[in-house]
Amino acid sequence: MDGMKTQDQTKEKAMTTRNEDDATQILETLKITKIERRSANVGGAWVTGTMGGHRFDALVFADHATESEYELGNSRISKISVQPIGERRMVACFDRGWELRPTTPIAEEIVDLLAAGLAETVYAC
Question: pTM value?
Answer without folding.
Answer: 0.80
